[in-house]
User: Fold this.
Amino acid sequence: MKRSKKSLYSEMVLLYQINESGEQGQKISALCQEMNVPVKYLTEEDLDTNVGKLAEMSTLQETQTTENQETPSLPAMILRGFTSKRIDELFSKMKESGAGYIPLKAVITEVNRYWTLKLLLQNLAQERKQLETMR
Assistant:
């Protein structure tokens, strides 16, 4: 049986362009609370901040940023410290609760943790666009 690599960091969900007091935000907060996972809501003020810093991870490398490209306005979910099994559990609970669809999703990696939030969102939007053209 294949073992999942355990993260050095505990689980955390970061949400962008999702209103904490809105229906979707409340449903996601409730199911994350049920799973004992903290949720952090990000705003446009966080766009130039390092993803690792936003996720409360130590960052020793310099932040990688991008040119003045437009920032996607799509909602995003960024996961820290999740195993594949726990990601499946989270997405299943989201579907069951009717929490709604989040078009941009990412797991924090050793590479993207040094990116700004804006750069991560731009890369996610570009990947999404490429996948849609392949369909």
In short: The longest helix spans residues 117-134. The CA atoms of residues 31 and 42 lie 18 Å apart. Strands lie at 12-16, 39-42, 76-80, 104-107.
